[in-house]
Structures are given as C-alpha cells and as structure tokens.
Write a structure and sequence with these properties.
Elements lengths: L1 E3 L2 E5 L12 E5 L4 E5 L7 H14 L2 E6 L5 H4 L2 H10 L7 E4 L6 H9 L7 E3 L5 E4 L8 E7 L8 E7 L4 E6 L13 H18 L1 E6 L7 H4 E3 H17 L1
Parallel strand pairs: 4-5, 5-6, 6-7, 11-12
Antiparallel strand pairs: 1-2, 2-3, 3-4, 8-9, 9-10, 10-11, 12-13
Bound molecules: zinc ion.
Organism: Halteria grandinella
InterPro entries: Metallo-B-lactamas, RibonucZ/Hydroxyglut_hydro, Sec-metab_biosynth-thioest
Pfam families: Lactamase_B
Length: about 240
C-alpha cells in the first residue's frame, strides 16, 4: 500500500496480542534501490511473498534494511529477507543496519538466536544518515537515525527528509498507534518522548509512521506528529500525578 509519494507499507502479516495488526514494515524511495524499515519476525511466509511481489511490481531492489530495535517482531525476520532478496536476484549484497551494542542483553540474545545474520549486519547510531536515490527528476531522501531509548535500550527512530516535501518520522515502537507503548526504562522513555517532541517542533515534522496500529488504514498508520507526542506526554504526566 502506497502511503505517500515515497513511502509504501508492507504489512507484517503477524497480528496478535501486543502486536495489534502486526508489524508495519515500510519501504522508502521511488528509485531502483530502496530502503526497508524493520524486518518483522521470522518465517512469516505471507509477508515474504508480499516483499517478492513488491519488488517485482515496482521493479526495484531493497539493498538496505534499517532496524528500529532488537525485539523479534522487528528484527528476527531480517535474515529471511536477506535470503529472499539474494535468491530472487533482487539484491546481490543486502545490508542490515541496527544500533548494535553487545553490552545489551537483547543484542547478545539476538546474535545468539540468529548468528546467520552477522555477516550482513552493520552498526548504526544516532545522527547517522542514509541517502536514498529516487526516480529520475526527484530529489533524494535522507533517513537520519534518532536514538530513542526507553521502549528498549537500542531503539532508533528514523527521520525522513526530502527537499520540497514534508518531514516525517518512523517511530518504531517508541510511539505506536495506541495510547502508550510498553517500556523497559521509564525515565529514558520520557526523555525520548521529549526529544521527539522537540525535534517535531524544530523540524516541523508532519507525520509519524508507527510500527503497530489497530487497523491498516492510512489514518491509523500515519499519525499527526505533534498532536500524538503531546497527547502521550500529557497522559504520562496525568498518570504520574495520580
Ligand atoms: Zn518493541
């Protein structure tokens, strides 16, 4: 499903408790080589078939996969996708980028559970910029990593910027299409909410693309940025006050 000129949704096809409709996986760019955001979980055949169909109908490759964080519904499917891209000739050398910190328990677990991904995995961190070349005549996109710990220590959001277009943010599980997200570190989570609010104001970010939503309608997937983050901050303050 096309959400904007340069952003497509590939549903993760993994609905369930805690996942709402499943993982919303995004593909960015209108050129030949595109960037995927998040990888869903392992062995979801319908999701993998959707990626294959997407690359065929769009006549594109996916060479880079950016991971918002190490929870299995965002990360564990990365190797399946890498294999699919190589086996179908969509990409010869796909790369997976994630904020890797081997001190983190999640990363140690993830690497032990999925050692096969290691040769495709590269570290990325706050401030790193990925450039996406669009179709001829269109300006390129940049995706910038924004460190947002709290939901989990290794969480990144990705800021989308393109000259002449609205700024957008892929919020992963930091901000989802529900009242609140689950968090492992509450003070960090609150600091990251403030960080995203300040960035939203500073850069006039219009929309958030969330990783989980109640439905797969555009209104549930693409939220009004400032209204959403302010609502979350206000509801946290109210709960803390009680
Ligand atoms: Zn998560």
């Amino acid at each position: 499903m096309q959400l904007s000129k340069q952003v497509w949704l590939i549903p993760g096809e993994n609905p369930g408790q805690g996942y709402l409709c499943g993982t919303n996986v995004y593909v960015v760019g209108s050129g030949k080589s595109r960037v995927m955001i998040d990888a869903c979980t392992k062995n979801v055949l319908k999701f993998l078939a959707n990626i294959k169909e997407f690359c065929q109908t769009q006549q594109c490759t996916i060479d880079r996969i950016l991971i918002t964080h190490g929870h299995h519904d965002h990360y564990a499917g990365a190797f399946d996708i890498v294999e699919l891209l190589i086996q179908n000739g969509f990409s010869t050398n796909p790369s997976v980028f994630k904020f890797v910190d081997e001190k983190l328990e999640t990363d140690r677990n993830r690497l032990m559970e999925h050692p096969e991904i290691e040769s495709y995995l590269f570290n990325t961190r706050d401030g790193d910029v990925f450039t996406v070349i669009n179709a001829p005549g269109e300006t390129p996109i940049t995706l910038t990593c924004v460190e947002t710990p709290g939901h989990i220590d290794d969480h990144l959001c990705f800021l989308l910027q393109q000259e002449g277009e609205d700024n957008m943010l892929f919020t992963g599980d930091h901000i989802i299409g529900a009242d609140s997200s689950y968090f492992t570190n509450y003070p960090e989570y609150l600091r990251s909410l403030d960080k995203v609010r300040d960035l939203t104001i500073k850069l006039d970010i219009k929309k958030y693309f969330v990783a989980h939503s109640y439905t797969l309608t555009k209104d549930d997937i693409m939220l009004d940025g400032l209204a959403k983050v302010e609502e979350l901050i206000a509801s946290r303050k109210e709960k803390d006050y009680r």
